[in-house]
Amino acid sequence: MAQAFRSNRVVLPEGTRPATLLVQDGLITRVLTTGALPPDVALTDFGDHAILPGLTDVHTHINQPGRTEWEGFETATRAAAAGGFTTVVDMPLNCLPETITVDALEQKRIAARGLTYIDWLPWGGLVGPGEDETANLEHLEPMVEAGVPGFKCFLLYPGCEGLSHLSLAQLRRAAPTLARLGKPLLVHAELEGPVMEASKALYAHHADWTKYATYLASRPDEAELAAIRALIDLVREFRFPLHIVHLATAQAVPMLAAARAEGLPITVETCTHYLAISAEQIPDGATQFKCAPPIRSKNNQDGLWQALRDGVIDLVSTDHSPCPPEMKPSGAFDKAWGGIASLSTAVPVTWTEAQRRGFTLEDLVRWFSIAPAKLAGLTKSHGQLAFARPANFVVFAPEKHWTVTADRLHYRHAISPYLGRTLTGEVVATYLHGEAVYSAGGFAMLANGRDLSV
Ligand SMILES: [Zn+2]
Q1: Is the pLDDT of residue 454 over 80?
Q2: 274-313: per-residue pLDDT in tens?
Q3: What pLDDT, on a 0 to 100 scale, did the predictor assign at position 160?
Q4: CA of 123 to the centre of ligand 1 (A)
Q5: Is residue 437 part of a domain?
Q6: Quick check: is 270 in a domain?
Q7: Where residue 236 sits, what CATH number does that domain have?
Q8: Where do runs of H (alpha helix) occur along 262-393?
Q9: Residue 301: inside a domain, yes or no?
């Protein structure tokens, strides 16, 4: 029997309005905004809860295979479902092997089999070895043929052995290949030089690493600015699609705006934690707030929101990057793992701040559904509630208040900078292919998720 899902606030491409989605065999067969329901449909009426298109997180570290004790497909996709996501795109590092060859990609696919609550797909990695070569350049095209939607690389040590970073010279040598393949290159845009220099000076002066200010000073805005400046030049020369992941400094916004006005193919992401936490709020020793680039000042945060408003920042991601508790001891910021786990909380945390600043559900959908789907090459199936699309959607209570507790996190290790925070906006249910994978705090249908890259 066909199903129907109704609410007074359905976020459709033409705006938010009362509507009913008719669903058969996991696909949307009609969107009704007027008129009566056909006979013989099973109707679920969500009343005043909003229905949003399924959300996509383009920046998730699942860590399986190889570091499943940090996180894994089952726990990450469960947390994602509880957070309103119907698709996550997995980063190619922190797992073993790193996703830098087709062989490694196949190992990841085998590891994921039967363990996903929602859909997923893998980014590939671009790595650099010694001085003159780009280590896996010849693997990029085979990985594209095998389904990866793009590649991630670093310009400084990524915090974990494996996905070795590239110098700008090595990246320059990879640029013609990237331009030919036409898939986005996702870059962690911090340059090594300014970070090394700042850190060296801090150690020389015996800085107190239990202070957040010390960690912040070790990763100055200039590290991001220098990287972004160089990347814009490379894109101007070679015209490959560039995506800046987790932009943390608002000082880069003017040059990114100018580069885009010039017509360069550049997209920009920031993360929930940069939008919802400021350096001034981080207590000393509180390493659950450590990530890279670091969370910067309140003033900087306002700049990031303005860039979202102006459309210079396209999307918001989680950068869900968990680790076991023993790797994140409180105390010294230089000893703790840099990463924040947030799949289950990112959307409500972002909405809490966004609605206060006058943004709408359409904005939330643009940042978490439409723009991420475009980056991951999923525009034909994701980002819109429309005819013939998968019935992937989120039921969201935008005015509901709730408090973050450990039992609401759902990922492997219940570490979060948001514990105890009261949020506005709650994910009521998440539907994948017309089936509830998350509803009223419970889960169903493990292994319902698919690898969208095959
Ligand atoms: Zn990351």
Answers
A1: yes
A2: 999 999 999 999 999 999 999 999 999 999 999 999 999 9
A3: 77
A4: 12
A5: no
A6: yes
A7: 3.20.20.140
A8: 272-276, 298-310, 346-356, 361-365, 371-375
A9: yes
**How many domains does the chain fold into?**
1
**CA 51 to ligand 1 center in whole angstroms:** 29
Query: How far is the centre of ligand 1, averaged over its atoms, from the C-alpha of 83 (Å)?
Result: 18
SS3 state at 385: coil
Expressed in angstroms and rounded, the spacing between residue 187 Cα and the centre of ligand 1 is 10
Domain hosting residue 99, numbered range: 54-384+400-423
Rounded to whole angstroms, what are the CA distances from 23 to 67, 117, 169, 443? 38, 20, 51, 21
Band (440; pLDDT cuts 50, 70, 90): confident
Kindly give the distance from the C-alpha atom of residue 267 to the centroid of ligand 1, in angstroms, as a whole number: 16
DSSP strand pairing (15-24 vs 2-12)? antiparallel
Helices (H), 289-420: 298-310, 346-356, 361-365, 371-375
Predicted local distance difference test score (pLDDT) of residue 131: 58
Q: Answer yes or no: is pLDDT of 1 > 90.
A: no
Amino acid at 186: L
Does the global pTM surpass 0.85?
yes
Give the distance (Å) from ligand 1 centre to CA of residue 150.
Answer: 15
pLDDT tier, 133 (very low <50, low <70, confident <90, very high otherwise): low
Whether 433 maps to a domain, the answer reads no
- Buried b / exposed e over 157-176, threshold 16 CB at 10 Å, is ebbbebbbbbbeebbbebbe
Ligand 1 center to residue 320 CA distance, Å? Answer: 7
Q: Do the beta carbons of residue 52 and residue 13 sit within 8 Å?
A: no
